[in-house]
Amino acid sequence: MEITKEMAPKEIIARRVAKFLKDGDFVNLGIGLPTEVAKYIPSKIEVLFQSENGMVGLTGVDPNHIDPDLTNAGGQPCGAIPGASFFDSATSFALIRGGHVDYTVLGALEVDDHGNLANWIVPGKMVPGMGGAMDLVVGAKTVIVAMQHTQKGAHKILKECTLPYTALHVVDYIVTEECVLKQTRSGLVLMEINPNYTVQQVQADTGATLIVPKNGPMTMKL
Amino acid sequence: MRNKIIEKTDIRPLLKDGMSIMIGGFLSVGSAETVIDQVVASGVKNLTIYCNDGGLGEKRNKETGELIAGPKGAGKLIASGQCTTLYATHIGLNPLIGKKMNTGEMKVVLIPQGSFAEMIRAGGSGLGGIITPTGVGVDIIEQAEHVYKKIKLGDKKKKTYLIEKPLHADLTIIKGAVVDKLGNVYFNKTTQNFSRVMAYASDVVVCEAQKIVERGEIDGNAIHVPGVLVDYIVKEEK
Fold first, then answer.
1. CA distance linking residue A177 with residue A3, whole number of Å
2. Tell me, what's the ipTM?
């Protein structure tokens, strides 16, 4: 699918993240934008979603069958697929920290070109707590940051994070409405670009120097 | 075998000022509301609470200020002011905690959820601590009082870990969907969360039961918490 100019940034991001996923992948989606990814999984593949409060097989809630004993990691009623399994928090994080989760998708306040992530605290403001985020990014095989490229124009992708870290050297990909970035040892590589942006525009919106492949980035498709 | 089933008010003698209590539940899902109400009614003070999140705060109509729902789970002990120290992973859904932190009424220690579960598991399993990569490079975690030290481990490629303390409490309060008279517990769906590990990690365990059954009525293969861990059973009141 081509990206249109009318498409909302969040939809572009969620659709592009969904393209990473393959049949049989085991995935944890963060609250907010990352949750939207589930909407765009092609029907021909099956992805298993984890909810870190203790289940594999998370799905959307059936409003006619709300079960108070069946909730997601935000404490909201959810659904369970046939074959879903339930377990305690220690087991849930053994799945996470033990490297059994293929992808974790989460938002960020800041990321930098060392793969460092800051997404849990703004000093001086209300501290909600890290919940499972620190374990998820340390443990999942692939960490995808799904977020809008800037915060109302302010850079979120930086040379060095300024906010307290969630974890060091953990981010593998950053997916924004402008591009897909891959973290490498040398820095952030501009893998794909939304055709409605130029490389110069994306670079201007980024606080770190991007590595542009010799033949240029590929066109971002959904 | 002694009878483990007690009246809800019979838990009062177990409660003391300054004690530590682990409370199962995840955003109050799976929390033992009937027993927690008794802790509130007892008026015991200066409690240290271990809970994933500090429960839910009261809900009010934004325009009229009318009360829609009271606090839930550990949130009841936050609202009552009985909890003065809270160990949790997330407090964003109970704004009262943030306020009490700012006024100094409460001390809050935030721990990554996976580390918290494992520290409780260690505390209940006779282990001296846990060794985890989570929190490495995060100043607030590395400097926390629950972290013993940072260490590099590995036979060939060394990796950095934190050694963290096991957690143990005076009392654990959990809720099971079905509990038999021997104290064996079966949880329903996502109510299992922290309750299973907390059942091991305190001196005394009170389990609220949605349903109490005779021994043998829960298939032994389906028991989540062996009854030897449960000291008292209280029937849930709706």
1. 10
2. 0.96
